[in-house]
## 1
Amino acid sequence: MSAASPTARRGIATRAVLYAILGLFAIVYLMPLYVMLTTSFKTLEEIHQGNMLALPGQWTLDPWREAWGSACIGLECNGVHGYFFNSIKIVVPAVLISGLLGAFNGYVLTKWKFRGHKIVFGLMLFSCFIPFQIILLPMARVLGILHLANSTAGLVLVHIVYGIGFTTLFFRNFYASFPDELVRAAQLDGAGFFTIFFRILLPASVPIIVVTIIWQFTNVWNDFLFGVSFASGDSAPITVALNNLVNSSTGVKAYNVNMAAAMVAAVPTLIVYILAGKYFLRGLMSGSVKG
Amino acid sequence: MSNASPERDGGARERLQRWLPKLVLSPSCVLVLFFVYGFIAWTSYISFSDSGMMPDYTWVGLHQWSRLWTSWTWGIALHNIWVFGLLYIVSCIVLGLILAILLDQRIRAEGVLRTIYLYPMALSFIVTGTAWQWFLNPGLGLEKTMHDLGWQSFSFNWLIDSNMAIYTVVIAAVWQATGFVMAMFLAGLRGIDGEMIKAAQIDGAPAWKIYARIIIPQLRPVFLSAVVVLAHLAIKSFDLIVAMTGGGPGNATAVPATFMYSYAFSRNEMGIAAASAVFMLAVIAALIIPYLYSELREPRS
């Protein structure tokens, strides 16, 4: 270490370059978030006069207050908080129900195989990848017939239906590697279908439950297409409200309020990502590559 | 009935146990069959019907399809999705691979860096679109910042330039997805057998040659996955475009997804909208079905 040979010195130089490149990329990746955050704490005058990259000269919480409680979206000026709670009202039941259905499906498709189980799984799996434009028109009509148009309940139904594919995929792949012997032994002991599921498989499923919840939570929270197609007005989710706020053509653009509203929409999924990034990544990977 | 023999009682229970799995599976099956495959069939039929504002089941053959294909906006949408898709896929893969290789050099802060590169994937496209729209805002964003820093001639107004606006969407989309592609490549790199690499190192092969000749060829399955996943994301992209450009200026950044939405809900042209949706489904099916088939085949041992 003390007598640095030329090759060792070259090694150090290479590593310095390596870290510099990685650091530069990190800055580029963080830049939009940084700009979004700092802008949300600036006054409008400062935005018009100052530098986008500078920290706020005078920190203010007003943009956040306005975004949450008094910004005008459409004709109403109550901020995004109502839409934020709409999203929660949609996310919680949609995630729980699609997750439960997926767990049962995965269990049946791996431990109670029947003729045609592969076709059933294939049909469910393909439903994850369809462009949802193909179902927009009939879904709008069916929601109308069921009196669920423009309601959060309607969006819950939509997210359950189109979430089943992924939740089934997650649980199926997880239970496929769960030893069949344990299930068979329990069967010989007289345990039934539900006993085996609740006593043996479910307690071992914590990791995949976390992956599924995070995946579904992120997907449903971030959804825009279903929200904008099926729930305009009061029952819209936060993403739709944010888009209406930002891209409404009337009045002076309050960039600081827009950024604060964007942060409100981003914070829940960001928190989940920071707390459980490992599980988030695992969901992403098994959503694309074989699990 | 009250004093049913134990055998008969056991038989009923057994029968129930035999049917229970299918019973539990059936609600999901019904939902998927109706809401996915039934809806696909319905939309496909509508694309051959005379539907406008309301469904009209009169069969008109390829009428809607020919209207779609002669539509000027649809031409723009197809052109855009080619440009967008190609640039998006290639940039994500090149950048993702580079980042993965750099991160695979026993980097001390790997965990932190990985978290930073991947966080955009957790954000809604509407949030990212809002952020990038502001960041690239010609009056106040990057352009003004560069002017303030003394680079007076710096000009970046792609967002409002109809020839360049689609590239701003590419930039934001690549920013959002590169971390994910990097994670896929990183997992691939970690799974490569070290023996051949060690042998090549002993032979004195330079690092770039080891990557070009041994490591990258072994990542072929990851390339395939990345292309399929990114291509299907590209075809489905809707939110980001709505949030960043709203399909504009004019129709300059229209893509099939925004085209379908506007024909379905603003222009009340159900037939054309259905035809465009069926087209999108067909492209994705051609891409995804062979991929799923090869992924789900029984593993060769």
Note: Chain A has two domains: 6-65, 81-288.
## 2
Amino acid sequence: MVPKFTSLVSRVIPLLVDNIDTDQIIPARFLKVIDKQGLGEHLFADWRYGSDGLPLSGFPLNQAENQGAEVLLAGHNFGCGSSREHAPWALMGWGFRALISTGFADIFRNNCLKNGLLPVQVDRGISARLLADLERDPMAKVAVDLESTTLRLPDGSKVGFPIDSFSRHCLLEGLDQLGYILSFQDRIEAYEGRARCPLPV
Amino acid sequence: MPRALFEKVWQDHVVVEEPDRPSVVYIDLHLVHEVTSPQAFAGLRSRGLRVRRPDLTVATMDHSTPTLPKALQVLDTQSKAQLAELEHNTTEFGIRLYALGDEKQGIVHVIGPELGLSQPGMTIVCGDSHTSTHGALGALAFGIGTSEVEHVLASQCLLQTKPRTMEVRVDGRLSPGVTAKDIILALIGRIGIAGGTGHVIEYAGSAIRALGMEGRMTVCNMSIEAGARAGMIAPDDTTFEYLKGREFSPQGADWDEALARWRKLPTDQGALYDHTVELDADRLEPMITYGTNPGMAIPISECVPSPTDFADGAQREAFHKAMVYMALEPGKPLLGHKVDVVFFGSCTNSRISDLRLAASVLNGRKVAPGVRALVVPGSQQVKRQAESEGLDRIFKAAGAEWREAGCSMCIAMNGDELSPGQYAVSTSNRNFEGRQGKGGRTFLASPLTAAASAVTGCITDVRRLELGPL
Ligand code: SF4
């Protein structure tokens, strides 16, 4: 159910604005759906389409050479604000599988990990170096390897990125975390047996 | 070992703790709304699972509900389908629902405390980032994504890595015209919108203790705007008085038992936090945001910053982008800047005390010509209370629109929205680009500042308006 993540080699789309909130990733008017389909179309809708509804040619997602890229290089504190999981659904719907940033907002990071979208956190120096590489050669590629938790930059150098061992394991195996929680059914029952019922309902 | 409030609630709820694994944490109360739940129920169904504790799950309709009186049926087809889906899901799984039209319906973070559902020492989650609001009662309350909504529906548990703790001490006394909203905007302005990332904040200090319950909710509500997972305030007599007699509050002997338990929750002397931040309440002024995130906040009498105020290139870039979107000039004052719309509402500032503050300014005054003022109570109960106090008459006499309960223009999903280019002073919590309508521009402020600005038609320091008696 959760797509596995092992490794990928891809071009990178830079969108180096700090504090991109989930209202920008997917505006609220697209949250009226009851499934996860088609959200990629509305990814960054207000930055991507003009008031006439037509794609703005200057926006990176609209450029022909960027189609098929699986990695986004974003600014600091990416995904802040609303907890909407529609944000990772929209990013994946467009085709992204990994995000590189100097920092992710907590809820967004959690939501990504539950959907097989890998947050790759790097320090400012690495982010700047990658941007410089991309400015020199927009077709440059990075390699993201979850097994070894490394990011290979276009110049061939490798840097590690942090991820907790549990999330890494789940992503590598495509494991769904609900299954893990439900494996503790008896412990949950035991807890309910000894804890007082929280609400008088 | 002395323990902080957070630590006590956390330890009380850990079901499974294993090395190198997130903990399995039990959830006492799961709040649900129409926007972030449909895919979770669908997931549940596709796995053939049931809701483990429908008795600990409570749903409301708030985000895309209309707020025009007598027009509660007018909905776009998508919203209609989403609301119907919630009705269907809650019926199928036996979950209590405060549907549109119910006399207790309202914004999820307003009705939780109001009904006495949210209580000290509980763990509370909702597929909504402002769940932090409920921490005002001494609960550990935080927002989760839809996958996690499904986890909680199925197991009443959540996988959580233990967050770090931050103490925010606010000592001193607020000056007249300065409110809970100004405390939290000042904090976010200070530590930034990622300043609390990975942390649970505990608000403490004499200025926090002096706040009423609803002011405390305003503070905890915007913890997420500082990037924090949750905000908490130790329960005290203010909390207990607020809870006593509410519909779901413990009664009789249960109340005494609960009270004894709750009194043990406050942080022990000598407990440690990972970080501490201090604010001086005496020196706080009414705050207002000028940019496109809640950290871009200044005391109302100050000027918008200049690019040279930002050492960091990325920050300068973000500032520049905000100035372009807001069409503001760096270095200029905000006072006197024209306003098209004033929005009173949202889970931050739509409770009865917020409406009383707004009415205290609007009483006997008029909303300036050309300005649209919208008052949207947080719940039907707040609405009725306001009407019994005659606040609705004050708003209507001033020329403001008096609406039904809901999120309304805070998120602009229900048709209440700004037009491109319009400026709004809003008592809500997010000034992100397009948040209140595509192209709309938001100044976040307190109900007092919003009301003063509605009267003059431009951004106004309430301390310069002569206050009439309510
Ligand atoms: S009022 Fe606004 S912030 Fe609060 S729950 Fe509704 S949409 Fe979210």
Note: Chain B has a mean pLDDT of 96.
## 3
Amino acid sequence: MRDGLRACMKERAVLGPGTGRWPGLAAWYLPLGDRGAVFGAACVRPAPAADESGREHAQALCALLGQALGRLHLGHSMQAAQREVERQQLQSTFLAAISHDLRTPLAAIVAAATSLQTQRERLDAAAQVRLLQSIVNEANYLSTMTDNTLQLVRLASPGQVLQRSWESPEEIVGAVLARIRQHDPARRIRSRVPEGLPLVRADAVLLAQLLTNLLDNALKYSEDEIELSVEVQDRTLELCVQDRGPGIAEGEREAIFQPYVRGDRAGRHGTGLGLAVCRAIAQAHGARLLLHPRAGGGSSFCLQLPIEPQPTTPEPPP
Amino acid sequence: MSLHVLVVEDDREIRTLIQSALSVEGFVVQTAVTLREALALLQHRPPDVIVLDLGLPDGEGQELVRAVRRQSSLPIVVVSARHQEAQKIELLDAGADDYLTKPFSVAELLARIRVALRHRGTALAAAVTVHELDDLKIDLATRTVLRDDQPVHLTPTEFELLARLVRSAGRVVTHRQLLAEVWGPEYTEHTHYLRLYMGQLRAKLERDPAEPRHLLTETGVGYRLATE
């Protein structure tokens, strides 16, 4: 039968008894579609050579099927074209944003470095320290941006597999805090991590990046204390970063998770990639990342990570 | 006598920067651009420490780490970019001593080299048996652990885990190494054992287990017992 269907699709004509083509076959083979495009073929049995009206009936049905398939096909190719357009748009937004966000810090680095190169003798010690600090800051910013960009591209690519294992939320938070406190000399971050938290199945490096981005944002956009808390609600681990910053307007609360959208359009820094990466990391973990306005002002970002049945623990020590 | 460092790095800018930063500190610096060149230099005169960049044009560094480990406990510090995570862990498992992630500061590079040198010649023998930092004192020979001069009771497994970190104090120890050496080679995938036992150790040894001073987490890699 497979050969018959193939031949029918190839010849784009009805085959079988009474059709004048391949009369020796035990069935009629009818193409689905018209001369322009054939999307398939049908096999109809029994197929008496004399049953002309039966054959016509089958042909009419197959013509209808062919039209329907044609419409489906058209729809698909239009969607594919639409997706391609969107992909290209994203790519050009991407390139525009990247080149803008690369140029600004690069300009600062080159300016500071060349100033030191040509004017060092005339600059006082404090000015030299300022220039050096600005080179370090801008370069670190470029490094973070590169990490976020690569991570976003990686998470968006199909077939992305997470390196999941059993991880301790307390450890991840502790490691992130140890690093980020170096940029928080005033110790504005207050953390509340209860004892005895369950383990989670997660990619620790990605979760750490998510938390780092949230804390970086909070430090950048607010002047006051920042609260970091971890709680267990039912079968969900809730990790929240809350600030007393200007907050985010209701209309922007969804948009801010899109790449290249940021809360402070006038602000000098921020690629608008950080939160997009956070959302992508949350989604890859089957988790939700929510943004709520905070009572009394500011924003509250919460990651809700499902808690899976805990692994069997090693034998209790004697 | 000055200490010799072999820097294996194919990027000229970074190689030159590392060389000048280390020379200023009094090290004698040799450089190699490829693994082949590094292996040849090692035959000629073994240095006191190797700084090895990942992603060299002629290979991934495993060969160098194995070749060095067959003969000596010469410390090796791996320098990697963030996307080379898996490769870095492989080298650590294969016997490299520690790592640095690009971009790194000169201060970080010097700190890693200092720690690596402290362990010179001790990676094979259990020479480091006493550890002391702030409120914590550990003596492996007498199996005593003191916190604020008060004895802390540890279960045998907790003690084994802590002892393994003490023997490499200041250096990262990978998940795989800890699981294989404390629980056994068939347990290298049981990362949850580590999470649970490290949690218990921190609860007993740390003032604030959520922000540890001693038992540091190297996310995705392993743990490190702080020495400074």
Note: The interface with chain A takes residues 82-83, 85, 103, 155-158, 183, 190-193, 195-199, 203, 209-212, 216-220 of chain B (CB under 8 Å).
## 4
Amino acid sequence: MPSISSNRLFWQAAVLAFVVIAAAGGAVMLSIGGAWLLKQSLVPATVATVVAALIIGMIARRVNNALAKAHEKIEAAYERMLAQKTKELSQREIELRSTLENMEQGVAMYDADYKLLTWNQRFREFLNMPDEFFSRDRSFVDYLRYVGQRGEFGDQDLETVVKQRIEQLKRKHSFERTRPDGMVLEVYRAPTADGGFIAIYTDITERKRNEAELNRAREAAETANRVKSEFLANMSHELRTPLNAVIGYSQMLQEEAKDTGQEDFIPDLAKIENAGKHLLGLINDVLDLSKIEAGRMTMFIEDANIAAMITEVRGIIEPLAAKNSNRLIINCPADIGTIRTDITKLKQSLLNLLSNASKFTDKGTVELTVARSGTGADETVHFRVADSGIGMTPDQLGRLFQAFGQADSSTSRKFGGTGLGLAITRHFARMLGGDIAVTSEEGKGSVFTLTLPVQAALEEPATVPEAKPMVSGDKEGAQTVLVVDDDEAVHDLVGSMLGREGYRVLHARNGDEALAIARKERPDAITLDVMMPQMDGWSALTAIKADPEISNIPVIMLTMLHERAIALSLGAEGYITKPVDWNQLSALLRQHSRPGAVIRVLIVDDDPEMRRMTRRMLERMGLEVGEADDGEKALAWLAANPAPSIILLDLMMPVMDGFEFLERIRGSEKWSGVPVLVVTAKALEAKEIEFLRSSTQKVIEKGATAGTDLRAAIRDVMKSGAALAKAAN
Amino acid sequence: MPKILLVEDNEMNRDMLSRRLERKGFQVLIAVDGQQGIDLADSEIPDLILMDMNLPIVDGWEATRRVKAKEETKAIPVIALTADAMTGDQGKALAAGCDDYDTKPVDFPRLLGKIEALLQRAGKI
């Protein structure tokens, strides 16, 4: 109880002060009294002095005793308090320590000078630094420098990073950090009241791994679904060809039977034709649904006259309704006006609803009512299809719009159909910005209401977004390839593949975007997917080839189907079937990109392995390569070939070394301007460095990062070369 | 008797369509690929061409372009026969110079209507 003990101390001090003051007061009074007696000569001076001394001595002893006693008391109280405080402090220390040491997180606190104050074992483990860093004279800046020297900030300038990190400490912030060994840490830092800060490190490796796995699983599932849909789309296409022959021949035979008077064949031939048409309808439904699921269903929006479309629909439905002796009633005002939508899809939807109604109604009525409502942007058209047929139970209603979810399987046996029609109709309605609703009562009939906006608002905006190309990689001077595909997975794959090969990659998701980006960025080549929403690949290809400004950009088509002839006839330079064979694509791009601007590089090196590696790298960059294994051979190569754009030069070579070769070409008229990049393992002397600096563009040391350095240096040279060429024009 | 050149590589489609056309009183010439189609158009100057689009050697679009590029044959009406699964084919066909198109499977009465309309316009019937 600190307050009580300090109270006691206060009172003891007060008593002591009183005693001292009282004693001093007494002595003063005595002195004054003695002096007065002396002055009056009432007492002889000697006696007075002795008495005074005695009295003063007595008082002093008393005071002394009192003082000593008081002092003892104070000291004891102080000891007690100290013990108490120490105990409390160590208790707190224990609390703090056990909290810190039993946490899953690494914690460190820094003071106002950013020096380490407190830290726990986890912090040491997470930071993975030498022991001397975990002491109070070490600061946050020391730590940053160490981590920077370990290479964890990549290419960033260390001092800049240090400055940034210090600046960050003024605010609460958090970020993720991946250790070289793969451990992912979430780092949280916040300022503390004393001007320092606290840092909390959490190991989120497991969480990250789970997230990545989840993503992978999701992607795999999506890919599988897409592959399934694509297979179905292709398969359905294949099924239609023979079926068309079946239908065609049965029609033809009916015509012939009529002409030759063999009419008794006609009913059977008509059955073949009808069965064939039915099967074709089913295949078309499957094709539609798989296209919808694969995101490849395209909408063609146009202005259409509603009444004219309804007349057409009536012509098709009338015989169907008559089959079950149903009365077809159509209520459509002649002045119903126009609708801006995909009229083919709308017609298909209405035919589907009306043929269902006719199928499930016997000797009843099938009624189509068309009406407009709303104004402006909210103006809609309602198509209401009511029948007096068998109707549905609430349970059946619930499953109605699911693919393959016909009310029950006995229904499909009795009435036929895939049960895909309503699923497709709803997809169409929603893609056109509308929807479909249903009410039904078992035995009384059903009412389907299809509502569409007068101005179709597509799910995906059809307008061209401002051509702001997404760029992967950041490679100045590299050749640019525009990848056009609606499939994100393709962007990832092609993007990373081309990026690795040294290309700068632009991305477009549809034909319109591709055109806008191509006009703006003038890529060196375009890869174009055939099947895309909005504007398909063929239309995009035609548009590219029709625009004189971009028609010379080579286009390579990526397609699922074997449509090589179409691709080439429409002006594509190349053609590849999916799944993409990278080597094939890479070869095609090399062959076609940037026509006329061949960049030739001469490698001068006596090490054949080094030449081979460098050649491969350069060829991947799309460059043409010449080789020579010493200076003399290099001079011979130069004499026999057109001047190269760049020379890569080793220094230590037999016969003629790099220095002599350099002197020779710098002295010549013809090759003095050719940029030279020195690639060497030689430890250079000051004089040599001076010479190379004046006569070459860059010196690259052979070693682990030589490849990256070399690519960057070549791009620099190519870029300045291009700049020079531009200036000369 | 108007002369129709049918350019189609699928044997059954070729057989059906040519027989039905002949029964309607047309003289039918057959070509099985785009190149043959161009050659026959040159040598026979038919009154109308029915052109499949997915053809070997030279495809229907290119064949149409070449027919329409030549002074002697450019007046011949061309009807493209396109697979309706390939949306965009029709637009491409018209861009290549086709006068009309019809989708496969062929609805014969409808196709006949288009043939007659084009022949009438060309003053052949």
Note: The mean pLDDT of chain B is 87.
